[in-house]
Each structure stands twice: as structure tokens, then as C-alpha cells.
């Protein structure tokens, strides 16, 4: 069976260095924050092109503290999108603010800047775009709206480590960038992890304080804080992997571009070709009959996934936000059709060829019509 993701292959390629970094950390008996985390913070900030990176316990913690650092809370509104993992919206609710959603652009599946203006109210404090599937959102358009209205911008860059446009990387466009290091991400820890990037020293200092129980010094708690610290082993693991992220992303782009050129024109595919502005975290196709294609690929020995089967506004836990079916047609249509194909740096040429051949054979046999891009408009 060709796996959707194979972390064992990644581990095998870096096992000696990874194990030495972890064992060194274990032998030090310094398990929370400490030198491995500080070193990773310096290196990750330099990599992203920001002055600061603050390592945290998860990507969700990063989103939560980014909002709190900007003093966003009850009575405030934050504009975001329904095409994302639920953590984006949950973090806004954790801060006590109200998520206000806008639809995504049908050609990129990222925030449509043209939709933002109509969503702005006197309570709007920030815009939170999502670099979905690893593709950078239209940051020029989003930042233009934000500057016009005096709004802050928080990038949800959980899927976009290393994506860049015109020399600027994900996490360096807005006031704050939020990353997840969940193991399956392009840059993944050996467990949970996250980070906030910023070039504002005051915001960085506040997030450092918030992640460690609001302490200004040991046992002096100046504000309500949280236990959102990164453990030292995750810092050590991420330090080893960070050196390889550009090579891994290049391999992902090669695979995505092979899909783009090799898959049947009868199949609506992810929106390529893929350059540096796309980290290629996910490669999706959009068949009319997702379940039939998925079942056929399983029979042919190909594992697939769905990112994500339901937009956030149609999830039961978020029904009280008041967005019903039909409110965001692009997001809803995408969610009905999306199917993610195997995409990881160690996918072999033979496996890639098999996925393309099997998918094309199933598409050619299918009786359904090719879905139209208009369906997402």
C-alpha cells in the first residue's frame, strides 16, 4: 500500500543525528524550554526573516497567544475563512472574540481580499488569513485592506513553512505569523509544537510572558498566563529538521508538479504549477464522485485523505456562529469534492507513477463529468 504520509522514511534518513540530539537533551536533564528551544527560536526566526520566533506547545497555542498579544478579546471581531482546520476559528473563540468568516477565492482556496471589506465592522480588530494547503494567501491584497482600516494581520501559516513570495516568507508578512509543528507538517516535531514569528519586540516579549504563566520572573505573575511552553526535546528535533526543510519542500514541489502535468485533464486538479509561494503541504484533486475515486484508489493500493470534509461553519460545534449551508459556496463546494493524494518528500518515482496511472485509469473509466471550476465561483 502506498502510504499517504510515511514519517518512518523521514526518520530513517536522519536517525543518527536526530537520536544524538534527543539523547543529548535527555542527558542534560533540562526538559522544558532551555538551550535547544532557544537555539531553534533563533534559527527559525532567521529562516523566516523575522526578528523573533517564540516556541510554543502547539500551533493552536500560537494562534491563541497571537490574539491575546494584540489585546483582542470579548466584543472584538476577527475576520478569517471557513476553509481551514478548526483550530483557526477555535483560537478566536478562546480569546473571547467573535470569528467573522469570508469565502475563499476559487482559484487559490485562500482568503479572497475582495470579500473582506463587506465583513469589516467597528468591532473588527484583525484579519487572520490561512495559507491553505501551503499556498500563500494574497498577502498584498489583504495587507492593503488592513492598512486602509487600521487592522492587524495574523498569518495562520501552519501549513506553509518556507513558502515565499518576492523574497518574503510565510510568517513575515503580517504583524504575527503562527506555525504548527504537528508531526505531519512540512516541518514536524516528535509530538506537538508551535511558534509565533514577529519583528515587533513588544509583541514577542508579551507572548514569551503569556506562554510561561504570565511570569516576569520566577513566581512573579504579572498577568493571567498559560502553560504553553515548548519542551526541550521538541526544540532539539526541530533544530535537526529545520536544516532540511528547503530540500524537503523542493521535493514536495517536484511531486506536486508531476501530478499537475501527469494527471488526466478530465480531473479538476490543485491549482498549479507550483513555485516557491507554495509549500505543497497538500495536493488535492476535485472529482465529482469523491468516494468512488477514493475507493478505487484504495483497491489499487493508494492511500488518500480529505482536507477537510466539512468547512468550519458547518461543524456542529460552531453552529451558533450563525452561518448556515449556502453561506460560503466556494468553501462548501470544495469540501464536498476534495481528495488529497500522497505527498511527502520520500515518495518514490515508482510510487508517484503508480498513483498517477491508477488515478487516470479510474477517471477515464468514470461516467461522471469533469467538475467545472465555475462550481467553485
TrEMBL record:
The active site is at residue 185. Coiled coil: none annotated. One of its GO terms (molecular function) is pyridoxal phosphate binding. Pfam families: DegT_DnrJ_EryC1. Signal peptide: none annotated. InterPro entries: DegT/StrS_aminotransferase, PyrdxlP-dep_Trfase, PyrdxlP-dep_Trfase_major, PyrdxlP-dep_Trfase_small. Gene3D superfamilies: Aspartate Aminotransferase, domain 1, Type I PLP-dependent aspartate aminotransferase-like (Major domain). The modification N6-(pyridoxal phosphate)lysine is found at residue 185. The keyword Secreted does not apply. Keywords: Pyridoxal phosphate. The keyword GTP-binding does not apply. This is dTDP-4-amino-4,6-dideoxygalactose transaminase. It comes from Tranquillimonas rosea. The lineage of its organism: Bacteria, Pseudomonadati, Pseudomonadota, Alphaproteobacteria, Rhodobacterales.
Amino acid at each position: 500500500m502506498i502510504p499517504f504520509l510515511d514519517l518512518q522514511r523521514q526518520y530513517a534518513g536522519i536517525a543518527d543525528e536526530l537520536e544524538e540530539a534527543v539523547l543529548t537533551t535527555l542527558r542534560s536533564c533540562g526538559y522544558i524550554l532551555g538551550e535547544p528551544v532557544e537555539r531553534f527560536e533563533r534559527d527559525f526566526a532567521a529562516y523566516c526573516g523575522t526578528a523573533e520566533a517564540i516556541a510554543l506547545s502547539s500551533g493552536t497555542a500560537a494562534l491563541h497567544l497571537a490574539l491575546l498579544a494584540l489585546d483582542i478579546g470579548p466584543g472584538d471581531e476577527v475576520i478569517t475563512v471557513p476553509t481551514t482546520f478548526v483550530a483557526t476559528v477555535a483560537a478566536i473563540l478562546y480569546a473571547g472574540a467573535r470569528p467573522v468568516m469570508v469565502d475563499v477565492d476559487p482559484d487559490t482556496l485562500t482568503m479572497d481580499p475582495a470579500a473582506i471589506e463587506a465583513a469589516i465592522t467597528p468591532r473588527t480588530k484583525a484579519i487572520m488569513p490561512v495559507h491553505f494547503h501551503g499556498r500563500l494567501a494574497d498577502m498584498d491584497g489583504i495587507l492593503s485592506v488592513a492598512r486602509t482600516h487600521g487592522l492587524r494581520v495574523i498569518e495562520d501559516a501552519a501549513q506553509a513553512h518556507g513558502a515565499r513570495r518576492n523574497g518574503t516568507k510565510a510568517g513575515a508578512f503580517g504583524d504575527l505569523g503562527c506555525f504548527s509543528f504537528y508531526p505531519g507538517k512540512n516541518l514536524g516535531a516528535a509530538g506537538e509544537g508551535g511558534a509565533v514569528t514577529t519583528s515587533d519586540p513588544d509583541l514577542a516579549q508579551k507572548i514569551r510572558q503569556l506562554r510561561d504563566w504570565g511570569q516576569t520572573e520566577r513566581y512573579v505573575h504579572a498577568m493571567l498566563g498559560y502553560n504553553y511552553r515548548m519542551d526541550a526535546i521538541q526544540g532539539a528535533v526541530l533544530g535537526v529538521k529545520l536544516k532540511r526543510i528547503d530540500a524537503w519542500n523542493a521535493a514536495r514541489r517536484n511531486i506536486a508538479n508531476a501530478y499537475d502535468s501527469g494527471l488526466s485533464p478530465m480531473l479538476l486538479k490543485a491549482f498549479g504549477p507550483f513555485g516557491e509561494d507554495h509549500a505543497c503541504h497538500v495536493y488535492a484533486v476535485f472529482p465529482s464522485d469523491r468516494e468512488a475515486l477514493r475507493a478505487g484508489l484504495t483497491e489499487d493500493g493508494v492511500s488518500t485523505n480529505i482536507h477537510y470534509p466539512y468547512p468550519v461553519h458547518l461543524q456542529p460545534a460552531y453552529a451558533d456562529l450563525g452561518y448556515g449551508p449556502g453561506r460560503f459556496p466556494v468553501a462548501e463546494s470544495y469540501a464536498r469534492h476534495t481528495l488529497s493524494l500522497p505527498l511527502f518528500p520520500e515518495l518514490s518515482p515508482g510510487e508517484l507513477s503508480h498513483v498517477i496511472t491508477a488515478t487516470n485509469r479510474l477517471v477515464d473509466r468514470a461516467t461522471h463529468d469533469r467538475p467545472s471550476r465555475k462550481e467553485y465561483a
